[in-house]
Each structure stands twice: as C-alpha cells, then as structure tokens.
Amino acid sequence: MGHTEPAASARTSTPAAPAPVHSGGRMHILIALALAVLTVLAFGAVWGNLLPSSLFLPVLLVLALAQIALQTMFYMRLRFDSRKFTLVFSSGVLLAVVIVIAVRLLLVRY
Amino acid sequence: MSHGSEASGFGPGPGAYREATPAENNKLGIWVWLASDCALFASLIATYVSLHTHTVGGPTAKQLFDLRITVAATFVLLASSMTMGFGLEAAQRGDYPGVLRWLFSTGGLGLVFVGMQVVEFTHYVQQGLTMQVSDFGASFFTLVGFHGLHVSFGVAWITSLLVYTLRKRRLDPAQVWRFEAASLYWYFVDVVWVVIFTVVYLMGKVG
Any idea which architecture B21-206 has in CATH? Predict the structure, then answer.
C-alpha cells in the first residue's frame, strides 16, 4: 500500500520531523546485516560446538526470536504501520503457540 | 510513531470515522491470511518436534543434516528479503526500472533457494530418508517441503507482478498495494524459515 507511506510520513507530528526510518535502502541493508550476523552466530555456536549442551536451546531460541522481531518490526513494517495489523498477526502467533502446546501434549506419549 | 488514529482507520478527530480504503482492506486481508498460516505452520512444526526422534532405525537428523548448504540457503533467502525491500521502495517511488530489477532479483533468489532445497532433498533420499521410512522422514519432508511450496508460490506471485508491470509499462500509485502484499508474504516466508532453520536444522544437529 505504497500510497499510504506518504500519509504515514504526514502523520509524524511536525513538518521538521525526520523521515521515517523505513523509508530508505539503508534500513534494508542494516537489517539484512543484522540478520546475517545472528544467523552466523547461531550456526557458529552449533558448528563449533561452542556452548554447553544446556545452553544450546535457550541461546538458539533467543537468536531466532531476535531475527523474527527484526523481520516483523522493520521488514514487515509492523513498527510503523497500523496497530490493527500487529493485533491480527499477534493473534495468529498466539494461536500458533497454543497449537504447538496442544500438539505436544497430544503426542507426548506417542 | 505512526500509531495515530488515522492509521487505525478512524478519522482525524475524536469520534470522527473514516472508511478504510480498499488498499487498506486488502492489506488487512493479507495479514489475516498470514496469521492463519502461522497456525498451519505451527501444527507442522509441533508434529515434527514430537516425531523427529522416531527414526525406526533410519538415519537421524544429526547424521543427515549438512548445515553448510542450509546456511547457504538461509543467506539466499535473507538476500531476497533485502531485494524485495528495495523493489517495494522502487514501486513506492514510481521507479519502473527499479521495480523490474529488484523483483527479478527477488524471484531469482527464490528460485535458487528452491533449487537448493531440491538438491538437499535428493541428497537425503539417497542417504535413505524418505517419507515412508520413518515418522521423522514424514514430518521433516512435510514441514520443509510445505515451506518450499510457499517459496515457490511466492516466486509465482512475484513473476505475476513482473508480468503485470511489464504489460502496464508504468507504475500506477493506486496499485502499489499489490507490491506491498507480495512483500509481506515474502517476508513471512522468510520468518517461517528462521523458525524451521532453528528448530529443525540447528536443534536437530545439536541432538
């Protein structure tokens, strides 16, 4: 909905307000670099066996959550867009978590 | 921040109401679709997590997975997200050649990703992992293959946008939402891959 982007800019309070962060190729490059670094960290931890086994799961989950947050907030523009989109998507994520728990409970004895 | 009342579909003043534009409604529809897709992938991921140890004497994830090709595929998909972002910005600027260039790059990277997945699957089948051999094989191929189908659908969507743009020979500002819808889908597919890469491949390799 590109024609709403100028409207989004116009929503910022004053004429002197800086342009939104998402209106520039630099943001895409920075996010891509951050995602690449997080991927390398996760891969390196597993490939180099750098962590005690008890730490693998939490560290990998934190790295994955950081990547997901970056992608949804900046690439998918939930950080800048209407809250109703965040609400809709969060509902889907919440439902996903419930499904994961339900399936795990269902198959736990399988 | 732009979480203003207008962004929520309400008018500029308290109590005033503004009808959402068709483009906004379309975008909301895309978000609802993506939210429902979350549930679909959640069921597949949960099934895989529950069944991945059921190898019935067949190859295990730890024996089988070669993280190097998976990491390479991950970087390809990450790069495609960046090019998709450039393509969307080009569409918003009305930069016709830019849209063609970046969408073509994104679709091409998507095809490379699918190709890498085909190579990976072929390798696993040669190593003795098929859908029939164990619960692990069935849940793995279903989950990762389903994601691959999503990427393939995304490539088809991008191709249709390219054809649409080429036929129009210009960019209509009122139609830019089409590019944003495709970009949201593409980013979502990338987000799902982050989860699959972590849960299936990295944790599978750790054991």
Answer: Up-down Bundle (1.20)
pLDDT tens-place string over residues A14-38: 333 333 444 568 889 999 999 999 9
- Give A34-90 as a DSSP string: HHHHHHHHHHHHHHTT-S-HHHHHHHHHHHHHHHHHHIIIIIS-TTTS-HHHHHHHH
Contact with chain B for residue A66, Cβ under 8 A: no
Q: Where are the domains of chain A?
A: 2-79, 82-110
Query: Strands (DSSP E) along chain B, which ranges?
Result: none
- CA of B100 vs chain A CAs: smallest distance (Å): 16
With beta carbons under 8 A apart, name residues in chain A contacting B82. Answer: 28-29, 31-32
Residues of A in contact with B173 (CB under 8 A): 2-3
Can you tell me whether residue B136 is helix, strand or coil?
helix
**CB B43 to CB A43 under 8 A?**
no
Contact A46 B187 (CB under 8 A): no
Sign of CA dihedral A48, A53, A57, A63: negative
Residue-wise pLDDT tens digits, B50-103: 999 998 888 899 999 989 999 999 999 999 999 999 999 999 999 999 999 999
| pLDDT top residue among A22 and B111 | B111
ipTM: 0.84
